Amino acid sequence: MLAVTILHWKLQLDHIRIVYNNTDVWSLDVYMFALHESVKYYAKYGTKVFGAFLDCSKAFDKVLHNALLKKLLDKNVQIGFVLLLKNWYSHLCCSLKWNNAMGQWFPILCGLRQGGVVSPYLYAIYVDNFNK
User: Fold this and answer.
1) pTM higher than 0.85 for the full model?
2) Cα dihedral value 36, 40, 46, 51, nearest 10
């Protein structure tokens, strides 16, 4: 049943991609449309529909740097890139400013850079195989 569901979602999303002129710009309404149509399809044929949703609103903040680096190595990502990320993320520091007073600097031990071009890809690798 899971394979059928995945195939159905792929067909729905491919159809939406054609309708949206092959753009990779996706908005929440497109995903909601795909979800609605999938549920409607299975309900029409009397199949039970189950759903699980993951709130990823703060997800980038929870990524453990060492765990991410290990997963990248496990996926045979080039060592140079992994070392670059290790250097990049091991030197992150932050300080708070309040009423024109700067606080002490402290290290950032987890989280991906918000708005970073590579951050969504790193997050996808990080959460891959969480169910195993």
Assistant:
1) no
2) 0
